[in-house]
Amino acid sequence: MMKKNNFHPFVKSYDPALDTIFFNLTFGMKRQAFYDTCWKLNKTGLFMAGSSNVSVQHEIMTGYGKPVSMNFYPNFSNDILYEMPVTYNYEAWAPWNRELYSDTLIVKIVRQMEKDYHVKFSHKKTQDGRPAYYNYTYPRKILVTVQDEQYVKVLMENEKYKMEDEKNKIENEKNK
Predict the structure, then answer these.
(1) 88 near 154, Cβ under 8 Å?
(2) Cis? peptide before 16, omega within 30° of 0
(3) pTM (2 decimals)?
(4) Do the beta carbons of residue 72 and residue 86 sit within 8 Å?
């Protein structure tokens, strides 16, 4: 069911499917709900503490040829999740394992995301010549880039929740 949209004058309805991120995590969820969901999935063994204990890690064992490590931790605005940065890398990556470089992994990640989110990505090169893929299904933006030889970086953002935060900031300023 579509909900009435109050965040953009040209869009008449909002598809809540655009809030889906992965593993029952959604844009718009409260910070505590994020922690609770991650804690439950940690107890099942699906999640663990990520790099330097500042992210959540999930090991992907199938679909990429070799195990892939996925690390993420969202950005919140007024305790609402609006952005999800994610990094992926092959667990067996090493400088001499050319087949496990990020330029190979990015293609597989984009294919999987196209299946998961039912979208098509456009392809460009960054200013330094690295591959970049993007999809903009208003208000959700997904950008997939090669960070370096080892890591693929994904940035998912839902402008609906970012705009709500900006609207709240403006209202708070008016009330001062």
Answers:
(1) yes
(2) no
(3) 0.85
(4) yes
Q: Per mean pLDDT, which range of 14-18, 22-26, 63-67, 71-75 is the poorest?
A: 14-18
Q: Average pLDDT of 24-34?
A: 96
What was the pLDDT predicted at 20?
Answer: 92
Which residues, 6 or more positions from 66, have their beta carbon under 8 angstroms from its beta carbon?
90, 91, 92, 100
Confidence band of 16 (pLDDT split at 50, 70, 90): confident
CA distance 55 to 21: 16
Cα 91 to Cα 97: distance, rounded to the nearest angstrom: 11
Does position 3 have pLDDT exceeding 50, yes or no? no
d(CA 1, CA 19): 13
How far is 51 from 57, CA to CA, in rounded Å? 8
**Tokens standing for residue 74:** 């969202």
Which residues lie below 8 Å from residue 72, measured CB to CB, with a gap of 6+?
50, 55, 56, 58, 84, 85, 86, 87
Report the phi/psi class of residue 79: left, alpha or beta, with left for phi > 0 and alpha for psi in -120 to 50: left
**Residue among 72, 76, 36 at smallest CA distance from 54:** 72
Mention every residue, 6+ apart, whose C-beta is less than 8 A from residue 162.
77, 82, 83
